[in-house]
Amino acid sequence: MAGSLVEKKTERNDKIYEILCSIVGSRRVSTDPEELYLYSWSFVNATDKPGRCDYVVMPETVEEVQQIVKTANIYKIPITAAVSQLNFGGVATPRTGGIYIDLRKMNRVLEVDEDSMYALIEGGTTWSDLKGYLDKNYPDLVVGITWSPPGTGVVPCALESGFVDLSLLGGCLSEWINGLEVVLPTGEIVKTGVAAYTGGKRWFSRAPGPDITGLFIGWVGKMGIVTKMAIRLWPRMP
User: For residues 49 and 93, is the Cβ–Cβ distance under 8 A?
Assistant: First the structure.
């Protein structure tokens, strides 16, 4: 009996692996024990007991994230999504196995609006990515200097109300969010702020009108996976 249960579990795992490979390609899915171990703990909380995950997946598009989440829903698999292994309190450490979604390949700056002063970024964009892009293409605009390492994510920092050097002027980063694109646990996609009723064409504000951005702030990704964020920019001081 025990042997048959193990056999069924192995068959199920193989099937899920094949599905994930069909979504993102085999080069962006891993079940290698050494790689899984690297994703099982946070370098910031190195003394914590490691967690575990069964698959690591690196999507490049919101559609791929959507299909991964739908697959997890069908097979009742837990998901952990993160940008780096640099998180406080182990909030992005997988505890019960499942799929670890590494968002670092979704790191593009999609738009910079100089008039409305915001940047539209993907969910895996790091502080280094955004600052480097602005310095090269929009040197008169800044997003501030974070107190965390440059390889950490802009989106998780903003969702957790992080601070930068301009926070005394503009408040914590959650107040800089103009809008979000989020893949919900069901696999549905929602947009918040002005983007909700402009079809994602404009991201200059949360207002006017009803806004649900606050539902995703402070929940460390438990309410959905943020695949795009519009974040406020500031003029460079002389």
Answer: no
Single-letter amino acid code for the residue at 49: K
Residue 5 Cα to chain centre, angstroms: 35
**Number of C-beta neighbours around residue 75 at 10 A:** 14
Name the nearest CA neighbour of 149 among 157, 139, 141. Answer: 157
d(CA 207, CA 205): 5
Pick the CATH number of 2-104 from 3.40.50.720, 2.102.10.10, 3.30.43.10, 3.10.20.70: 3.30.43.10
pLDDT digit string (tens) for the chain, length 238 residues: 344 444 455 788 889 999 999 999 999 999 999 999 888 877 666 666 778 899 999 999 999 999 999 999 999 999 999 998 776 667 778 888 899 999 999 999 999 999 999 999 999 999 999 999 999 999 999 998 888 888 899 999 999 888 888 887 888 899 999 999 999 999 999 999 999 988 888 899 887 878 999 999 988 788 999 999 999 999 998 7
Q: Shortest CA distance to 111 belongs to which of 103, 122, 101?
A: 122
Q: Which amino acid is at 113?
A: D
Name the fold adopted by 109-235.
3.30.465
pTM for the full model? 0.90
Helix axes 2-24, 62-75, angle to 10 degrees: 160
Name the residue ranges covered by the structural domains of the chain.
2-104, 109-235
